From TrEMBL:
Transmembrane segments: none annotated. It comes from Brassica rapa subsp. trilocularis. This is AB hydrolase-1 domain-containing protein. Residues 50-286 form the AB hydrolase-1 domain. It comes from the Eukaryota. InterPro entries: AB_hydrolase_1, AB_hydrolase_fold, Epox_hydrolase-like, Meta-cleavage_hydrolase.
Length: 325
């Protein structure tokens, strides 16, 4: 049977062109432990600019989630955009599914490229990884942006009914839809105003391209976020933190944003709430999201003290990682 035209695959190619045109290049790092991470990196890292690491959420690959923003950030920052493990071209043979493992893998990639300090921004699941990086690598992460990232959740929240789903298994089935009806449910949960109509042919195209690979492993990522999670165990990160949240978020309810702000303290974290906005802020309110990120990040968009020295030190001291340029 002849293969049919895939709009989703075509759009993926367009995003690749968009990232390349913006000044990024595709790079794959073999971490040497059965783990391979793909990342979009600057064609030339400019030491006079700070570094901004953008982490995507669950769903499509990193390009689909950050394409609206890279053109705006690249003039001010060295921008790095990795695919997290089991998304895009990143994968591992190791059994660890924790956000801590994801965080360590991303940092190894940044080490391999000789990056010293950086600011990290994470969308949804990417925010879990960003928070873990800030907790693990205190001297390397200077600021944190969390966009609808429910890091303050705990296992009992599901039992208490604050989510629209009844279990981690149900959440995984929604997040990685395998039918048009389930994709429509995902859109209804993610958007304040979801698309009125999605043709089944487009839905199946998206599912085939974006939701079929590593399905079991991705479901294990969701299970790892939920199982045994206790808010009391969440570390307090010391970095200045911006949280951007949709008031109508049905994936991670805004209650979790207020919980995390109380946890971090009034002076350390600021919370921006967007009215009439759901979970997919990067799609529903990209201009507002960029405006608040720019205000938070660009007041200090200059080279950090000793960053050049740290970069040179890392380049000479890090354990060998094979980078396919």
């Amino acid at each position: 049977m002849a293969s049919c035209f895939s709009y989703v695959s075509c759009r993926n190619k367009c995003y690749q062109y968009s990232f390349s045109r913006a000044g990024l290049r595709s790079s794959t790092s073999d971490l040497g432990d059965g783990t391979v991470v793909h990342c979009w990196v600057p064609q030339t890292h400019v030491d006079a600019k700070p570094t901004l690491l953008l982490l995507h959420g669950i769903g499509a690959n990193a390009m689909w989630q950050w394409d609206r923003f890279i053109d705006r950030f690249i003039p001010r920052f060295n921008v790095y955009v990795p695919d997290l493990i089991f998304f895009g071209d990143s994968h591992t043979t190791r059994p660890d599914r924790s956000e801590s493992f994801q965080a360590s893998c991303v940092m190894k990639v940044m080490d391999a490229h000789g990056v010293g300090t950086m600011t990290v921004a994470g969308l949804s699941y990417g925010g879990f990884v960003a928070y873990s990086m800030a907790a693990q690598f205190k001297e390397r992460i200077d600021r944190v942006v969390l966009i609808c990232a429910g890091v303050a959740l705990e296992e009992k929240d599901v039992e208490d009914g604050i989510f629209k789903v009844k279990s981690a298994d149900e959440a995984a089935n929604v997040l990685f839809p395998q039918s048009p009806s389930m994709l429509r449910r995902l859109l209804q949960l993610s958007f304040y105003k979801p698309p009125v109509w999605i043709p089944s042919c487009f839905a199946m195209d998206y599912i085939h391209v974006m939701c079929r690979d590593y399905l079991l492993e991705r479901k294990e990522l969701v299970e790892a976020l939920h199982k045994g999670r206790r808010f009391a165990d969440l570390p307090k990160i010391a970095q200045p933190t911006l949280m951007i949240w949709g008031e109508e978020d049905q994936v991670f309810p805004v209650e979790l944003a207020h919980r995390l702000k109380r946890h971090l303290g009034e002076n350390r974290a600021q919370l921006v709430l967007l009215k009439k906005t759901g979970h997919a802020i990067n799609e529903e309110r990209p201009k507002e999201m960029y405006k608040h990120m720019k205000s938070f990040l660009c007041t200090d968009a200059m080279i950090r003290p000793n960053d050049n020295a740290k970069r040179l030190m890392l380049t000479s001291l890090i354990s060998p990682v094979k980078i396919n340029k």
